[in-house]
Amino acid sequence: MTCTIDERGVVRASMACTLRAPRTRVWGWMRDWRSFLEMDPLHVRVEALEPPLPHADLRIRHRLLGIGVDRVGRILRWREGKGFIVSDLSRRSPGVGFPHVCEFALQDAGPCATRVLVGVRGRWTARFVPRPIVRAWITLVLAATVGIIRLHWVARPALPRR
Amino acid sequence: MPGTVRPPPIDAEARCAACGYFLAGLASPGACPECGRAFDLSEPTTFIRHDVFRRGRYWLPGLIAAALVMAFGLWIGVFGFRSWGWSIWLATPMAGAVLAGYGTSVRSWLGWLLLIVFVGVAFLLMVISMNLGGVFCGLMLAGVVVVPITGAIGLGVALRKALRRSSFSQRWYLPVLLVSAALLICYALDGPPPRRPVETVTTQREVGVPAARAFAALQFYEEVHANPPWILRVGLARPLHVRRHPPAEGDVRTCVYNKGHITKRVDEVVAGRRLAFTVTDQQIGYERDVRLAGGSFEFEPVGPERCVVRLRTSYEGRLGPRFAWRWGEALAIRTLHNHVIDGIEIDARRAAEGP
Prior knowledge:
The structure holds two protein chains of two kinds. Chain A is α+β, with helices and mostly antiparallel strands. Chain A contains three helices and nine strands. In chain A, 23% of the residues lie in helices and 41% in strands. In chain A, strands 1-2-9-8-7-6 form a six-stranded antiparallel sheet, covered by helices on one side. Chain A has a three-stranded antiparallel sheet with strand order 3-4-5. In chain A, a hairpin with a 3-residue loop joins strand 6 and strand 7. By secondary structure, chain B is an alpha+beta fold. Chain B has three domains: 1-52, no CATH class; 55-190, no CATH class; 199-353, START domain (Alpha-D-Glucose-1,6-Bisphosphate, Chain A, domain 4), CATH 3.30.530. In chain B, the strands form two sheets. Chain B has a seven-stranded antiparallel sheet with strand order 3-9-8-7-6-5-4.
């Protein structure tokens, strides 16, 4: 687990968990990127943005306790079998309101184990918020996301015999 | 790995019918990269649209939420609000049961049974491990909470079914917060236990010894030699010894138990007929549950060789709600009375038979 915020507000945070399955199987689950993005506890729904913006074609509904904003984004990078990166931006402008990217990546962690890495990179723009609070908040959201990924994986049925 | 470089479309739903691998975006027709099953995205019978996992079948978060709300609820209720009544013994397991019913998918009687057992056992273990009650309290509690837990699970299931049909986006966690908030309100409303009126349990039995002889064999629970019934062994502290004095007015005796002591002062003695006592000090570990006030022994002749022995115990029951606990307390006290009457009868017969 890492979470750093420099003096310009640049955030780099990541957290990982290991799932007991080969990477191909985990990727078969992770390819459903919309459902995977919705495992972030703040992302209640991801849908197509109509009409699309020049820098975004997804609407990501953020809600906490029923309150929140709709943000926008797009899939920036798709590496089949390895992961993807999605931008998460304010509707007002790409440069305000904590513009960041969410990264979901898979790494082999053994013959039958896969490391799922959840990362956030961006710039915290609300400079008046003390950094320890920002760090705690981002850590909390990442931990919740990783926890939900673990729980969802546990609830999936075992692979049927061929 | 298939060589797609673009992500699947956002509205795609195709999954492998065998293993659930997300097939959308792969070259079609083809074979599932995970299990090898053939699929053709233009032929709907070769794939499935729903995920192999549905939130409705997702039982673990529901059970964890139920256990956490009960554990934190007990701690906050007892040590924060100093509640010791219906909010602790009924509202807390019911809150856990609502969340267990809400967060899990119950479709059969076995599922209901497992949920009831889970919530009940988890609650009892929490009560015992937090030293809020003993084994006897736990057994009584099991009888008290089974119906409320069953009803609350039904409420949770109904809530889940109602919200499942809605598009309410916060439905996965907002009920947890609402139930937790409702539990806090219950603790605040319940508050510390009030002074309750003294209740009395009376047991009477005819024994085959004269009243005077039975009176001479009078003994307190701590002095009975026979092994007590299991309910007393499990539910009460174990008596170690007692300072025995002739039963005279003003006599004070301290009964020492493995968990503390009870001091009794004999207030009234009518030779051969009656002895009444007051409990002046109770330090035995059950002070939050029951505070003993006093009691009496009465011996009423019904023939030359028979009498009715009547035992009364007065106590302040501090556990609430009273309707839920009174029956268990009465059961324990009646069992204790019968054990004492047995002891009196046995000793009176022995005395009559001589050394």
